Amino acid sequence: MVFEKLRQIEIPRFLRRRTVARRRCHRPVTGTGSSRQAFLVVVLLMNLSVPAWANKPDISGWWDWHNRLQTKNGDIRSEDEAWLLVQEGTSIRGRYRRKVTFLSAKGKPYACNGLVRYQRIAVYQIKGIVEGTHITLKEVSVQVQPSPCDDGQRRLDSYRGVIESGNLHIHWTGGQEVLRRRNLTGLWMGRNRKTLHGGDQASWQEMWHIRQAGNKVVGLRDRTDVRTSGDGQSYRCSHSLKIVRALRWRFEGYLRGAMLVLSLAAPLKRHSPCEQRNVRPTNLTITLDYDPDQLKISGPEASLVLTRQDRIQPAGFPDDIAADRRPKAALLPPRR
Q1: Could you give the C-alpha distances from 260 to 144, 155, 184, 219, in angstroms and in order?
Q2: pTM of the predicted protein model
Q3: Mean pLDDT by 10 residues, the chain (336 residues)
């Protein structure tokens, strides 16, 4: 049917091909051979519509929202929401945690707990669908964290939203908010320590310089290990009661839902007479949780929690990976 209609299309003059007949009359031939085929292909491609899935953004990942305001009696009310969305085709599932913190401005304790500060925390399970850049979400259940300052009552809402400029604008009956995709760009630090067999004390510190653009992540990982003698005897390699070793990795990876999947190259070692470790390239998975300023590392050696130190742009990285330039959240009325 389509090709029948294409055959009826008149080819423009600039694509026409003139041939000289062997007979006396000379006549134009409208689209013979390859010229007509090429034109029909162009027409066909111009009339094909782009499939819906080609323009569909992937909303999987963590999204954050924050609001801070002052109540009528002068207390400070902070609202934080962390949304984890997982998109599978046109379906969406996930959860989000809503945390509301009240702080007494006058230093007067609250009657519910006898303190100048209290929180209300609830986790909602959600599901929905996505159509192009528009989404529909529905809360299906809620779990409220017990607190003497919380009666545990919540209502379940439905949302409609649209993705604009990389942000997720959602609205419901009585309000709206803008969710911003979480960006890990900045400096992260973590420390830990433990007692080794024999009484020695081991401590280590890690500093991560991360750059993120979209789902792509690159950076540097610096680790310093310190081991202190527990029996008062000096180590042979350092001739002291302490051993200090340092490693640096370059890494790259990507975000996948609530996980950060990284590939680490072979590390660079700082020269030390006590450095005899054989560290090879490896893969590492980091868990992202509700707190946007924490990363949890689980490895064969030990677990470590990285805390965001700032949102600076680390030096020495390619300029094609943009830094986090999220605007500050505006003061909005309380959601609920």
Answers
A1: 28, 33, 10, 13
A2: 0.71
A3: 51 48 46 54 48 61 94 93 93 95 92 95 96 94 96 94 93 93 93 87 92 91 91 87 90 89 85 79 87 82 81 48 37 49
